[in-house]
């Protein structure tokens, strides 16, 4: 855990944070302990909606981007190398001291090797299958900064670290081709940078499409990629999202369809529970006549969750890598 490495570095490894000035905690999960830090000086920087909401609930100042100067920035490394470099460069732009905290499985060794070619590390410790290091980089990381959004080879707006940034995901392409006669109010849960949403909006019967995405950088790209006026954007945890209530309505809004290519990893670890949470969310927001269309990796056992929540479940396509699934007639719990 991040807290184990940071605590160990502070208590026994020689990390001495500045006595004065604000501190930034960048990218840390919402359950990370901060009792080893002076929380009166702390601002959390988090672009994931679920983690952002978690920090707000804990009563700490929380923002989506750093502003002004910090005495030190404590950076939790993301999995993607380009996102890790960009996050460290952003921290270096705003802070005199940068503390790097990462797991080996998230590439911390490679990042530290690259850092040593540019600057001298002030110190480092190994703990909990990872490393925590600290440095005063100055402007040595300036070339690691990347545009917040940039166009890929296909002309789509993407950002460092987001899923399938180089090209449309093949599973999403297959799912879009399998959709039939969508209409009414629809949601794309885990919309990413918006490629699948554009496919959904090719169906003229769609009245409104809700793009629900937890990662703000991806959703900001979707706003650029999806310009259809029927699109409504929601920065939210898709597993907890509820459709907005129509003005004057007395009952919760329910949707006619949900389309999704849900994530199936937590970090580098396959996590079927995440996909099941997406399926449960879809069942919760669908009307009795509503339909779910989804794609999943072939090996993930989502059929059990679908059968428990829908009366009609069928595989409608796919290949050796992924499967296309359709479900209808939500099973409502008896009162």
UniProtKB/TrEMBL annotation:
Domain Methyltransferase small: 159-325
Biological processes, Gene Ontology terms: methylation
GO molecular function, one term: S-adenosylmethionine-dependent methyltransferase activity
Keywords linked to the UniProt accession: Methyltransferase, S-adenosyl-L-methionine, Transferase
Protein name (Swiss-Prot/TrEMBL): Methyltransferase, putative
């Amino acid at each position: 855990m991040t807290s184990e490495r940071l605590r160990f570095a502070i208590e026994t490894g020689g990390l001495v944070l500045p006595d004065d000035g604000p501190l930034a905690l960048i990218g840390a999960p919402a359950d990370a302990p901060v009792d080893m830090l002076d929380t009166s000086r702390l601002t959390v920087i988090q672009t994931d909606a679920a983690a952002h909401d978690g920090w707000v609930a804990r009563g700490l100042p929380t923002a989506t981007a750093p502003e002004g100067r910090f005495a030190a920035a404590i950076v939790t490394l993301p999995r993607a190398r380009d996102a890790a470099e960009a996050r460290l460069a952003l921290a270096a732009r705003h802070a005199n001291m940068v503390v790097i905290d990462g797991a080996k499985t998230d590439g911390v060794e490679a990042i530290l090797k690259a850092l040593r070619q540019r600057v001298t590390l002030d110190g480092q410790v190994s703990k909990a299958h990872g490393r925590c290091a600290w440095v005063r980089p100055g402007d040595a990381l300036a070339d690691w900064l990347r545009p917040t959004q940039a166009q890929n080879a296909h002309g789509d707006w993407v950002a460092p670290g987001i899923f399938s940034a180089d090209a449309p995901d093949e599973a999403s392409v297959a799912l879009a081709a399998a959709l039939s006669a969508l209409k009414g109010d629809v949601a794309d849960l885990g919309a990413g940078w918006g490629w699948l949403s554009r496919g959904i909006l090719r169906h003229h019967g769609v009245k409104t499409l809700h793009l629900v995405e937890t990662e703000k950088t991806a959703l900001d790209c979707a706003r650029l990629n999806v310009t259809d006026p029927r699109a409504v954007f929601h920065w939210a945890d898709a597993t907890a999202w509820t459709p907005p209530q129509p003005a004057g309505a007395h009952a919760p809004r329910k949707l006619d369809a949900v389309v999704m290519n849900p994530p199936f990893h937590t970090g580098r670890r396959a996590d079927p529970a995440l996909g099941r949470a997406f399926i449960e969310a879809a069942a919760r927001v669908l009307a009795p006549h509503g339909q779910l269309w989804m794609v999943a990796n072939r090996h993930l056992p989502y059929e059990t969750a679908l059968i428990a929540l829908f009366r009609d479940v069928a595989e409608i396509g796919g290949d050796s890598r992924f499967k296309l699934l359709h479900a209808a007639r939500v099973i409502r719990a008896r009162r």
